[in-house]
Amino acid sequence: MKTRITEMLGIQHPIVQGGMHFVGFAEMAAAVSNAGGLGIITALTQRTPADLANEIARCRDMTNKPIGVNLTFLPSVNQPDYPGYVKAIIGGGVKVVETAGNNPVQVLPILKEHGIKVVHKCTAVRHALKAQKIGCDAVSVDGFECGGHPGEDDIPNFILLPRAMDELDIPFIASGGMADGRSLVAAMALGAEGMNMGTRFIATKEAPVHENVKQALVAASELDTRLVMRPLRNTERVLTNPAVERLLQKEKELGSTLKFEDIIEEVAGVYPKIMIDGQMDAGAWSCGMVAGLIYDIPTCKELIDRIMAEAEEIITQRLAGFLKH
Ligand SMILES: Cc1cc2nc3c(=O)[nH]c(=O)nc-3n(C[C@H](O)[C@H](O)[C@H](O)COP(=O)(O)O)c2cc1C
Prior knowledge:
This protein is of the alpha/beta class and 325 residues long. It has 14 helices and 10 strands. It has helices at 4-9, 26-34, 49-62, 82-91, 108-113, 125-134, 157-167, 181-189, 199-202, 211-219, 242-254, 264-267, 270-276, 300-323; strands at residues 15-17, 39-42, 67-73, 96-101, 117-122, 138-142, 172-175, 195-197, 225-228, 236-239. 47% of the residues are buried. The structure holds flavin mononucleotide. Residues 18-21, 23, 42, 70, 72, 100, 121, 142, 145-148, 175-178, 196-200, 285-288, 290 line the site of flavin mononucleotide.
């Protein structure tokens, strides 16, 4: 399939693996890129810029296909060393950066100067337009269904994607709730030129996470995610577990007086415990409603090949069939 996104990113299939904390290691990114999509290393999972440089080098040893790096701008007091991470990205010869959180205006000039394509992931049309205005090459439009941070507008992709198409000139990738060939065709019908998957890629053979995480995704249904941290206007969609239900109870009891410190036990330092140690009740971890569409644990190549074959079958058989009289 050829779209403005496949051309821009230099990939065979219009499928991107979104940055994921403690999932987006070299193994994950290389597996997706080797399968013809775009694999993305998550910068902030690497403790220092030197660690990121090392992770990029490890990934380069595993694939000669294009890879990307996710740079998430957090609303934190102790800001990570973003200039250092950017240096590691440039030094590693990475040609695509997925930015998220705040808009990437602070790093855009230097990335563009080095010929790096910037895809900004955002959850609102107004943020997508801002990204276009400041010079991003593309956007990933992340609907309310998504795992992670869906923003505060709660607009699902059936509305968000065609709204993005109506407003944007730059190409965009559909993100949130994407799992299979049906997702890809639907996203493209709604105006996208590729799709981004997070949760679905965690349930693959190569995803460098504990087997318990993969099994939890296969077992989960579309009813099993919860929105946490809404009172802090930092909403995150996570898979439910006893820690998440405890967190929600605190939110209910404390109401508008809730502070981050009140829920620190359920959210801080949770990712290594879940993703590496497989302690599934350790706290809140991002997961999309798409868990309800995950039934197996294929390799990334099996998953991507299956998506592309299914998409082609839908376009040429199922949809074309409707036009035959
Ligand atoms: C476990 C997990 C961790 C994530 N961490 C990040 C992150 O650090 N930065 C980021 O920009 N997005 C992060 N995301 C969001 C994904 O990149 C992607 O936008 C999202 O998963 C798409 O929705 P889906 O899960 O329905 O496919 C994360 C998602 C998951 C499931």
